[in-house]
Amino acid sequence: MPARFILVVDDDVDFLEEMSELLRAYGFEPVVVNDSTAVQEIAKLVKPDAILLDVKMSGMTGFQVKDRLNQDLETMRIPVIAVTGSYSGKERRYLMNTLGVGACVMKPFAPRELVDAIESALAGVE
Question: Looking at the 3D structure of the chain, how many domains does it have?
Answer without folding.
Answer: 1
